[in-house]
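Because discrete structure vocabularies remain unfamiliar, we first show an illustrative case, written as a sequence plus integers encoding its fold.
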Amino acid sequence: MYQVLYRKYRPKVFDDVIGQNHVTSTLSNEVREGKLSHAYLFTGSRGTGKTTCARILAKAVNCLNPVDGNPCNECEICKGIDNGSVLDVIEIDAASNRGVDNIRDLRDEANFTPSKAKYRIYIIDEVHMLTIEAFNALLKTLEEPPEHVKFILATTEIHKLPATILSRCQRFDFRRISPEDISSRLQKVCEIENFTLEDDAAMLISRIADGGMRDALSLLDQCVSGTDVITVERVTSAAGLTNREYLYKLAESIKNKDCSSALKIVDELHNASCDMERLCTELVNHFRNLLIVKTIEKPEELIICTDDEFVSLKEQAKGFTLEKILNCLGCLEETAGNMKRGVNRRVEAEMALVRLCSPKLDNSVDSLIARISALENAISNGEIPQMKQKTVQEVRQEAKPESSKPVNESVQKPQPTPTRQSEEPVRPTVEQNVEAPTSDVPFTPWADVLELISQRSKPLFGLLCSTTAVLRGECVGIVSNNAALGKFISENSYRNVILQAVYDVTGKKYRLGISHSKSNQPQNQTKKDPLDGLINKLQNSEIDFNIN
């Protein structure tokens, strides 16, 4: 019967274990010196050699002829453990034997002496799956087991183990195997099996395996079906890296704010039986790759893809800002969590894409930061022209009335008189919200008043430069829809500057008010996006094109 490669080439001694020298050297030294612990805890990601080392350790401590801390694999005990005839080494799957009753049975059996071997070894795989009651039932036996019993616990999720279990075990952390070590191992296997493995293909398999030797051998086993030469194209096809064009199309739709295209792609994928949760996970990985491309000097070392796909990633990353990528990642991560609790996964995916394609609908902080960043980039690139500062002459020109009809003599511009220091200071009151009736007439000296204000108070001139004024009896009304203007000029210092300038120009003392033009006040104001107002203001203002 054919045996898959990862089982056929499972290491038999510590020296054959790849990439875990810090673990295997310590274990072999303990076996050689006879300084064995009663409980071991192996932790690490999948396919890094935890169960393999547990089996080698079980053989090594019971081997009749150990060789420098390694089992000989020739004696009856080693062969019996390999073929399962020696019942003193028991492997327990905690995922299916996780209850307190299973641990009680184990505790009762541990009192019996081994039948053939020197030690009775209990290998508990995926130990984090045990219930709290089962852990509590195991504590006493794990702390003080019989002299002939050894425990080897293995887990991929060390954080789920109680501290009372961790403190009773000698812990070994298994690291992810480097791509170079995996590639070297794959080449040796192919030499034995008479396969030709290209170096680039071996490295691609190693990167896809993500530090797991078992995953690498499984993918190699898949690649050799029907061929004796393994190329990059063969690995790409076997790993499913060729049909991910829809991820780039979805990212382009988000970049172009094309909500319609994004929803059409989702509909096509849904009709092709694509799981929406998997799609969300793939999009997270895609934007993670874009993030790596944007932030790291040599991103190809951290991204699993072909050379052509890497070129596409670099090209697409140019159209995204870091803020937008982070916003997409945050939204997709939140959506992935909602899919586990929601009723319809497709609706959750569509909602996320609509928010990403229409930033106005997303009021999160990350979305606002991304939009502000995009606006800053547009301004710096000249896509939105900058406002040109208005000069005093332009303000005066705008302040002149359009009508050429003569006005009453009482409002004609009198000759300016010099300011007399001895006169009583002007202290009239401010009348707020003076409506502008049809009898109001333009206050023609307002341009001269603004010119004096520009010389005396730059901040005040900046606030008043786009305003006009009307005269109603003895009151000068400043025409403006700025709600903050009334509070601003209610301050004595600014109000007195305006009134003094009016007096210096006209020679008369007027009262001061705010006139809100009815024509400029829409009756039904709807809530608008704050960034839209800023963009419209930039686009509709007087512009100055700077050509370098």
User: Anything to note?
Assistant: The first strand starts at residue 39 and ends at 44. The CA atoms of residues 6 and 218 lie 6 Å apart. The domain at 5-174 is CATH 3.40.50.300 (Rossmann fold).
